[in-house]
Write a structure and sequence with these properties.
Distance between the termini: 60 Å
CATH architecture: 3-Layer(bba) Sandwich
Order of helices and strands: EHEEHEHEHEEEEEEH
InterPro entries: RraA/RraA-like (IPR005493), RraA/RraA-like_sf (IPR036704)
Protein name: Putative 4-hydroxy-4-methyl-2-oxoglutarate aldolase
Number of strands: 11
Cofactor: a divalent metal cation
Pfam families: RraA-like
EC number: 4.1.1.112, 4.1.3.17
Bound molecules: oxaloacetate ion, magnesium ion
């Protein structure tokens, strides 16, 4: 296990992956205020359906571990694969600290973990560091742990599973800002993540203007129906 002046556990998550890709700049000005729109992920899912994109995941598959929050932000992606060699002790292999060097405040960490939710790739210490870096939320196709600590950090997190068993020494971080798989969806760095208590959508930046235009039309129609115009 590696050590530094903060102690032996301070380096957890700082494994260097083989692939570090580009994170596109994305203009999120038009998404200002979207986090307050009721039912946002459902409306966005309908719009993406109409545009021919299948880029949404249900909260049945990936429940919100802290409820009542809607998060909108640019995706920073992390990819894990099974560790190829069994280690004598659970050393590192997690890469969230390395990934956090590539984020801007308001970004959303989107992590391809083990999918099945057997092994954790994100816990209380990772949540603390993510909040320090201004991360808006975390989406994990895999497991998280230390849910009480994550809740205390008030960090919105969605995940396939929850476990006490770490992915350290079992999973290997292989890529930051590379395309990843979240359930049946391919997520690319720079996609706009829209996550709430119904589901998680990943909007490609090139269709964001059209999505915004259609969203405004739908919201106007909903206000007319509700008599709140
Ligand atoms: O080892 C893990 O799964 C991560 C962890 O506990 C933490 O970040 O606190
Ligand atoms: Mg922990």
């Amino acid at each position: 296990m590696s050590t530094n002046k903060e102690g032996p556990r301070a380096a957890i998550g700082s494994h260097q992956p083989a692939h570090i890709g580009e994170l596109p700049e994305v203009d999120l000005a038009m998404t200002e205020g979207w986090g307050d729109i009721p039912g946002l992920s459902s409306t966005i899912s309908d719009i993406l359906d109409d545009l021919g994109y299948h880029l949404c995941v249900s909260c049945t598959a990936m429940p919100a571990r802290s409820t009542g929050r809607c998060v909108v932000g640019r995706a920073v992606t992390l990819r894990y694969l099974p560790e190829r060699r069994v280690r004598e002790s659970a050393s590192d292999g997690l890469i969230h600290q390395s990934a956090l060097q590539h984020v801007s405040p308001g970004d959303v960490l989107v992590i391809e973990g083990d999918g099945a939710g057997q092994y954790s790739v994100f816990g209380g210490m990772a949540a603390h560091r993510a909040v320090q870096r201004g991360i808006a939320g975390v989406v994990v196709d895999g497991a998280v742990r230390d849910v009480d600590q994550i809740t205390d950090e008030q960090l919105p997190v969605w995940s396939t599973g929850v476990t006490c068993v770490t992915g350290r020494g079992r999973l290997q971080g292989v890529g930051i800002n590379v395309p990843i798989r979240i359930q049946r969806v391919q997520v690319c760095p720079g996609d706009i993540v829209i996550a709430d208590d119904s589901g998680i959508c990943f909007v490609p930046p090139e269709v964001l203007p059209e999505v915004g235009r259609r969203l405004n039309e739908i919201l106007a129609e909903e206000r007319r129906i509700l008599g709140t115009r």
